[in-house]
């Protein structure tokens, strides 16, 4: 195990369509290729990460398998009452990652847990033990599994909403990365995320964390609420002459200032504040149809067989080599931060 405890890294943006799931998956594959024992955690009820990691055919054949447990099965005892999270639930091995990459399958029924959180969050805010028990369920499961299975990194994918479920996920994560596109909507998403997360952290700190001390709640039941923003990734920019096109460059130039105001200065710390806004963790270019084909095959962008896409994508081999370089650098950058903080 590379760290003294398993690290939880969440990919999140309030704006949809920014390639969040694709970035999370491909980055996780690179972590695994570099020897880090990595587990994907699909906390988006749409289950896109599960489909991407397992491939269309495998996903369809095992969708209703009773031998393959999902995150809902893990939480079922908490949701229905009478028991705790199921730490016996096994992760599934992914075809990528040299044997170091696994996944906890997503579930459309995760919305049942979010319904429970409506009451649970308020109960925790007033110091009620059941509220802490229910809001910490995912976090406690990951802690137990990380320890027992010697996991280095959990890579968490979420839905693109400011939902109560995502509030709990972000209050329980160690780090978060914000993928974005070079457009006006991404800038608005940064503002929404930074402002709301600041309010969530403050509320949790002033209520649930204060009440936990007076109610003698054990620490493993209390979400830390100190998730660290470590940087952003600019995704799907179009290239002309090896540079972002003019329209995309306009928005790319505005991103650092917005990130600084709403994310870095509010959700980062120490030397990471300036580093997290002054430059992206990496800029990932638009790879055309390749990511869509990867959704069918379960491949990472940089490992797919060029022959599978050659007919429909000019420059396929060059793009795959470029993706290999980009995700290698992105993974190294993130790992250097996880090693330090």
What is the level-2 CATH architecture name?
3-Layer(aba) Sandwich
**What class would the helix/strand composition place it in?**
alpha/beta
The unreliable regions are none
The total count of strands amounts to 10
Describe the structure.
Helix 9 (184-206) packs parallel to helix 10 (208-214). This protein has 14 helices and 10 strands. The protein is α/β, with parallel strands linked by helices and 341 residues long. The chain has helices spanning 20-33, 48-54, 56-62, 71-80, 110-125, 129-135, 137-148, 164-172, 184-206, 208-214, 246-267, 272-278, 290-297, 316-340; strands at 7-11, 38-43, 92-93, 101-104, 153-158, 175-180, 228-237, 239-240, 243-244, 282-285. Strands 3-4-2-5-1-6-7-10 form an 8-stranded mixed beta sheet, sandwiched between helices. Strands 8-9 form a two-stranded antiparallel ribbon. The mean pLDDT is 89.
């Amino acid at each position: 195990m590379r760290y003294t405890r398993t690290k939880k890294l969440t990919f999140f943006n309030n704006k949809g369509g920014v390639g969040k799931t694709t970035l999370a998956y491909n980055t996780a594959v690179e972590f695994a290729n570099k020897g880090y024992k990595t587990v994907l955690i699909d906390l988006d009820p749409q289950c896109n990460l599960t489909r991407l990691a397992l491939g269309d055919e495998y996903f369809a054949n095992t969708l209703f398998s009773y031998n393959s447990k999902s995150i809902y099965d893990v939480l079922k005892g908490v949701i229905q009452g009478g028991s705790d999270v199921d730490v016996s639930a096994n992760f599934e091995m992914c075809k990528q990652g040299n044997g170091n990459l696994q996944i906890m399958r997503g579930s459309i029924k995760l919305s049942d847990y979010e319904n429970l959180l409506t009451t649970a969050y308020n109960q925790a805010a007033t110091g009620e033990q059941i509220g802490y028990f229910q809001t910490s369920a995912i976090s406690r499961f990951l802690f137990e599994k990380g320890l027992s299975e010697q996991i280095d990194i959990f890579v968490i994918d979420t839905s693109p909403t400011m939902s109560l479920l995502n509030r709990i996920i972000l209050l329980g994560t160690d780090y978060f990365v914000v993928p974005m596109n070079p457009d006006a909507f991404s800038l608005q998403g940064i503002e929404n995320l930074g402002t709301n997360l600041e309010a969530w952290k403050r509320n949790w700190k002033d209520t649930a964390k204060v009440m936990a001390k007076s109610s003698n709640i054990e620490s493993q039941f209390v979400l830390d609420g100190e998730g660290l923003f470590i940087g952003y990734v600019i995704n799907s920019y179009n290239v002309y002459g090896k540079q972002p096109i003019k329209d995309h460059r306009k928005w790319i130039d505005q991103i650092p200032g917005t990130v600084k105001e709403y994310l870095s200065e509010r959700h980062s710390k120490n030397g990471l504040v300036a580093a997290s806004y002054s430059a992206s963790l990496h800029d990932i270019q638009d790879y055309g149809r390749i990511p869509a084909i990867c959704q069918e095959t379960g491949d990472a962008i940089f490992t797919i067989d060029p022959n599978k896409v050659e007919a429909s994508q000019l420059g396929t081999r060059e793009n795959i080599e470029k993706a290999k370089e980009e995700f290698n650098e992105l993974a190294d950058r993130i790992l250097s931060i996880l090693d330090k903080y």
